[in-house]
Amino acid sequence: MTASKITLGIETSCDETGVALFSAERGLIAHALHSQVDLHTVYGGVVPEIASRDHVRMLLPLIQQVMDEVGIEKPDAIAYTAGPGLVGALMVGGGMANGLGLAWDCPVVAVHHMEGHLLAPMLEENPPEFPFLALLVSGGHTMLIAVRELGDYQILGSTLDDAAGEAFDKTAKLLGLGYPGGPLLAALAEEGDEQAYPFPRPMLNKPNLDFSFSGLKTAVMLEVRKAEAAGEIDNRRADIAASFQRAAVDTLVGKAVKAAEAEGLDRIVVAGGVGANRLLRSEITTRFSGEVFYPRLEFCTDNGAMIAVAGALRLSEARSATEIRAQARWSLDTLDVPAAT
Questions:
Q1: 151 and 58 part of one domain
Q2: Suppose 245 and one of 171, 189, 256, 289 were both cysteines; which one would form an S-S bond, judging by CB atoms 3.0 to 4.6 Å apart?
Q3: Which among 117, 146, 126, 120 has a CA at the least distance from the CA of 134?
């Protein structure tokens, strides 16, 4: 990675429009983020067509905003999220990246969204060194990954059904909370008794490192129905939320610590939207004997900064703007170690 180069990062994989400017020499120079939460709240979830249209509306103004903030006319390279994600939303970011690449005569890098998440702690003052174990927990993914070096990723375990963030959101919906449900559930859990319900810790004692949250979600649903039938749901919501959160966190932390010890890794990176959960951060820091790294809270959810740093680290793969890459599904372990620049 050439120190003088400035990389523009573009993130449009779902319902956040994120842009950022990053250089190896100066670090994160500028970033901006637009959330579409208000647009999708009425529907109780992300509507792909609405997400794509709002990316079209917001992306160029946000790019202009960060460029004006730094006072540059163009970056040296552009990185954009190429997948996984909503294809229409990815096409918006990819189209903008390639169009600007042609206009500015600068190379373009297609970035894997989840690689961006696991590299997000590189934006902090004390970034993790390779190798480390990554626990990626979001609305779409729950994975344990042995990260030997950039691009050398071995997926040790993943979810067999719901992702952790999806389980949080679905549980919040069962409890009658708003959208997005995860943060609202975590806030409500602080008012409840986490020992009130003995919810299962799915697959925690299994020899493998995979996750499953559908059984936990079903157990919550049954308790919610019992409380509703008894007319006690208003009095039990906080206890159910707290007990669910404790079961989910115990599962995530137990598997992560087990994986790190089995792989002989003394560093864990926790990233993705659920990585902002306070109980998860507290428990894994307490129960793991090694070092634990997180991105700052604003970079746990989707953002342009993580795409910018991932793109900067993969500048050797930059190409002339010739085609838009957009993949709804893209396995992280198909990535390669980039060539030296």
A1: no
A2: 189
A3: 146
